Amino acid sequence: MISFDQKDHLLRLARAVQENAHAPYSKFRVGAAILLENGEIFTGCNVENASYGLTNCAERSAIFTAVSKLGSANVKIKAVAVVNDHDAACSPCGACRQVIAEFGPHAVVWYQGRNGIVENTMSNLLPDCFSL
Ligand code: THU
Fold first, then answer.
1. Residue 102 falls inside a structural domain
2. Within a domain: 78
3. Where are the alpha helices (DSSP H) in the chain?
4. SS3 for 78?
5. What total of structural domains would you count in the chain?
């Protein structure tokens, strides 16, 4: 089980890292925080590029940071929290869902909008995901 305090902590960290977003094109800043099975937390923001397609989403930034630091064997995602500076309850995009599923097929996902926090699961967000 994930406690209310852990969830609140993740959302706060996501909110903080959102400030670091490089989003001059969309003007849509996103922050994400991931909680691993080992208790560690990693954060990431969206990093856009003048060549728009090279943009990296916040969720993937957080996951790639965790893998770079710990190695993939130690990255088992328990929960993901995502926020943005428009207070829109945006769930992770399709590409991010596939990447989250690689490391946390049963992770809980929270995304915060102005009407509160939406809770979902990866099994629900990406059923029958691609795997090799
Ligand atoms: N974005 C994310 O960071 N995460 C998502 O799941 C979807 C979208 C970013 C990408 C881009 O910088 C901005 O939001 C607008 O699409």
1. yes
2. yes
3. 4-18, 58-70, 94-103, 122-125
4. strand
5. 1
